[in-house]
Amino acid sequence: MLALRLPEDIERRLEALARRSGRSKSFYAREAILEHLDNLEAAYLSDEILKRVESGEEKTLTLDELERELGLAD
Question: CA 62 → CA 46, 59, 72, distances in Å?
């Protein structure tokens, strides 16, 4: 369950969209979150990932290494 407050102008737009389309406001809120969650995670977690890479905790591969590991090397 999630409850959130939206600015009045956004709430009006969402309400109008829901009314015109016959779908719920929750449907569109869910769609917006799902559409953008990957980008939000990348943006907000990138510092954490970079720290793990710099400390050696996170493994990175060159393209050549990845191709060899996946058996795709020539």
Answer: 19, 10, 13
Q: What are the tens digits of pLDDT across the range 40-51?
A: 988 888 888 899
Q: What's the whole-model pTM score?
A: 0.58
Max Cα distance, the chain (Å)? 58
DSSP assignment, residue 7?
-
Angle between helical axes of 25-55 and 8-21 (0-180°, round to 10): 120
Place of tokens 């890479």: 53
CB 4 within 8 A of CB 14: no
